[in-house]
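ARCHIVE CARD
CATEGORY: sequence design from structure
SOURCE FIELD: tokenized fold
FIELD CONTENT:
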């Protein structure tokens, strides 16, 4: 007798849309009884690990609503230029219905376009402005001028220093010369005074022959000696006189004194000139140094000014560009708005439908569209018979039960029987939290069991509604497909796809057993041996679970019955 052992993990319950519990003990008892009777137990149901799509959905029921009427008009008032349709015409989406005169709007557009072009040109001027490059060039030039000025001043000061030094040397030399001629003058004066102050007188011609000597010759005898020999009559003897004839008398030094005095005067005058020249050279050096410093500082100030100009230009440039870019964007937005005003002078059908009302003929002025459609509570569809009611003077055809007026009023055109449907369904709050705009929806209909149409979630109500003591949130679903069998008010089932992964490894939900945070399946190998395998699950769908790791494609797993 074969015994089937069931682990506690295999007997744990799985919760799905409510509490479902398998009574493992009863299952074991039944299997044991069958075995005890000698019969083979039926093979357990199996499934496979295979690639596929895992989808999670939430569903709810609601009513199908047809958008019966669409109010159409021009955003701005204008004179009707063309009306291309008549009451009762069937129109298609995008079809041109009417036009208003766009002359003034187009003129406004042209003016704004011109201003935009001008602003763009100014923007380009700021972007390509060479002020910064010019300021950089000016700064470089100012620096070169400063460097050249410093070199020029240094060269001038060197020349001035050389001139001052030369004047010093000339003064020293001429002072030395003055001292010499003064010494000569004093020597000659002393010599002349010592000889009695008698100037030297040469002998008369023919009174003797120079160069002859005799016993009384006084060659080489100075004034003092001559005075001793002849203290009364003797006078200075001319140097170099010899012979026995008469010789010159007096001291030649006395003859040189006038010339020495002249030389001293000239030397003093030269020294005075040298002193004046030295003072002038020193003053010129001081003046040149001061003027050079001023010139250098002026050149340095030009460098500072050029640096400030560069920094100012570099600092202002990005802000000027940003400002011009903002102005360009502003004018561009105005051009877009003006272009839209021109485009809106052409009225097109947003959806297909039948023209129910036209209020206006060519040449008349139409007002801007102001009519609105009252919506039914909790849905996104208009209340039948009240679309666009804005005036009690409208046609009396309407809803007799409510006394509502026929659509029209101030609307220019009303489209009726628009071939578009939507479903407004309430979702209980736990399901509503998973619904978001743009999610895909599969819609089925109780009256047409074989029909399924695709839809899209448009919006989710921000506030809940109490329906039978349960908080629900209305969700508007627009059908992307239609069918001639669809009628207003039909019951529809909306299944919103909240999550979906495609082409992933999956396992049937009924094969999965969970204990805490661990998920396992029972795998049957080729020999029929059963083994419990742990795996990592991913997205858990309505009927299959995504396998992240732990299983491989093609493995056979045991399914739990009754799940």
């Amino acid at each position: 007798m074969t015994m089937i052992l069931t682990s506690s993990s295999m007997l744990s319950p799985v919760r799905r849309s409510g509490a479902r519990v398998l009574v493992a003990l009863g299952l074991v008892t039944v299997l044991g009884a069958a075995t005890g009777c000698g019969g083979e137990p039926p093979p357990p149901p199996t499934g496979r690990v295979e690639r596929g799509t895992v989808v999670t959905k939430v569903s709810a029921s609601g009513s199908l609503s047809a958008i019966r009427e669409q109010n159409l008009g021009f955003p701005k008032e204008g004179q009707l230029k063309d009306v291309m349709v008549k009451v009762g015409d069937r129109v298609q989406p995008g079809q041109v219905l009417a036009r208003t005169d766009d002359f003034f709007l187009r003129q406004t557009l042209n003016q704004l376009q011109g201003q935009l072009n001008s602003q763009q040109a100014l923007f380009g001027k700021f972007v390509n402005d060479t002020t910064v490059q010019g300021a950089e060039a000016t700064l470089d030039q100012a620096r070169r001028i400063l460097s050249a000025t410093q070199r020029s001043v240094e060269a001038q000061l060197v020349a001035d220093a050389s001139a001052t030094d030369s004047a010093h040397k000339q003064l020293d030399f001429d002072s030395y010369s003055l001292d010499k001629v003064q010494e000569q003058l004093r020597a000659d004066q002393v010599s002349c005074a010592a000889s009695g102050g008698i100037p030297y007188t040469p002998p008369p011609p023919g009174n003797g022959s120079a160069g002859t000597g005799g016993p009384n010759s006084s060659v080489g005898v100075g004034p003092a000696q001559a005075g001793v020999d002849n203290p009364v009559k003797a006078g200075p003897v001319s140097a170099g006189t010899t012979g026995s004839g008469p010789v010159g008398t007096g001291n030649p030094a006395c003859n040189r004194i006038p010339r020495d005095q002249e030389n001293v005067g000239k030397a003093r005058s030269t020294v005075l000139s040298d002193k004046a020249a030295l003072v002038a050279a020193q003053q010129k050096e001081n003046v040149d140094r001061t003027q050079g410093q001023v010139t250098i500082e002026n050149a340095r100030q030009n460098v500072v000014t050029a640096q400030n100009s560069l920094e100012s230009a570099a600092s202002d440039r990005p802000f000027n560009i940003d400002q011009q870019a903002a102005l360009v964007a502003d004018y561009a937005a105005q051009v877009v708005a003006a272009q839209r005003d021109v485009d809106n002078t052409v009225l097109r059908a947003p959806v297909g439908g039948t023209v129910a009302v036209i209020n206006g003929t060519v040449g008349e002025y139409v007002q801007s569209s102001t009519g609105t459609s009252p919506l039914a509570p909790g849905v996104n569809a208009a209340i039948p018979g009240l679309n666009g009611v804005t005036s009690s003077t409208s046609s009396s055809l309407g809803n007799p039960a409510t006394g509502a007026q026929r659509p029209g009023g101030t609307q220019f055109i009303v489209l009726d029987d628009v071939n578009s449907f939507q479903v407004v369904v309430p979702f209980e709050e736990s399901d509503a939290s998973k619904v978001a705009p743009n999610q895909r929806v599969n819609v089925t209909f109780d009256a047409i069991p074989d029909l399924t149409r695709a839809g899209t979630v448009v919006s989710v109500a921000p506030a809940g509604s109490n329906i039978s003591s349960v908080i629900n949130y209305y969700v508007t679903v627009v059908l992307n497909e239609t069918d001639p069998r669809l009628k207003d008010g039909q019951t529809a089932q909306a299944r919103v796809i909240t999550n979906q992964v495609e082409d992933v490894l999956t396992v049937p939900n009924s094969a999965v057993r969970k204990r805490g945070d661990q998920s396992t399946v029972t795998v049957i190998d080729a020999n029929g041996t059963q083994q419990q395998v742990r795996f990592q699950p991913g997205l858990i769908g309505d009927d299959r679970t995504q396998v992240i790791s732990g299983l491989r494609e093609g493995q056979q797993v045991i399914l739990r019955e009754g799940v």
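CARD ANNOTATION: The first strand starts at residue 46 and ends at 48. Residues 358 and 413 are 5 Å apart (CA to CA).
SHELF: design records, drawer C
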